[in-house]
Design a protein that fits this description.
Length: 216
């Protein structure tokens, strides 16, 4: 579905070459008639080097929706800082928010309640009940108050290799799952998750769903 979207200065975006999977973080620095300029995209400490005429994919989120489009590099600006000039796209597509796809799965998780920056974290073991790109339901042996901030550590068993993940999450609900035992289901929402981390989780979900479908 094509959307009419207005770009804003300092808007966060991600950029990828057409034939590559990795997205690099960037931001819009200038908007002009027919084109907009972006800061050099980075993936951790690695810059994305682009050339005039090269096609790229761009994606961003806005008001709880995700968007993407394809465009091309039309030049480089080198005044105070180096910027890439991208042609304004002919169309911008709204894409399905994949973080709503939820998978019932059991993964070992280590979690710690973070109360301050200087605190030494004490990790406790839990197990996922379900997982999505936006959060998880975690089975734990303790009741944790809503709005508490957790640090999570777990491993995603992707098809190619296992990927360790460490994320921040906020407790949005806590329900006692078993009246006979001290087991609680914590509804967690990921905080400050990167596109790369979300992509890994969603990739794992779809890989596992495809595997389950083949076994039926």
């Amino acid at each position: 579905m094509s959307q009419q979207i207005t770009f804003d200065v300092n808007q966060k975006i991600q950029v990828s070459r057409i034939a590559e999977e990795n997205y690099f973080d960037s931001s819009i620095q200038d908007v002009r008639g027919g084109f907009f300029s972006i800061a050099i995209p980075y993936l951790k400490e690695h810059p994305l080097v682009l050339y005039r005429g090269e096609e790229v994919r761009v994606r961003f989120t806005l008001q709880n929706a995700s968007y993407r489009f394809t465009t091309r590099v039309i030049g480089v600006a080198t005044n105070n800082i180096k910027l890439y000039k991208l042609a304004y796209p002919e169309k911008i597509d709204r894409i399905q928010l994949r973080n709503h796809v939820r998978l019932s799965v059991m993964l070992d998780v280590e979690y710690a309640v973070k109360e301050s920056e200087s605190q030494k974290l004490k990790f406790t073991k839990g197990i996922t009940v379900d997982l999505s790109g936006g959060g998880m339901k975690l089975a734990a042996r303790e009741n944790i108050e809503e709005n508490s901030l957790l640090i999570l550590k777990f491993v995603l068993p992707l098809k190619n290799k296992a990927e360790p993940v460490q994320l921040k999450a906020k407790v949005v609900r806590s329900i006692k799952a078993d009246p006979q035992r001290e087991v609680y289901h914590l509804g967690l929402r990921f905080e400050d998750i990167t596109y790369r981390e979300e992509d890994m989780i969603v990739r794992f979900i779809f890989e596992r769903m495809a595997q389950q479908k083949r076994l039926r």
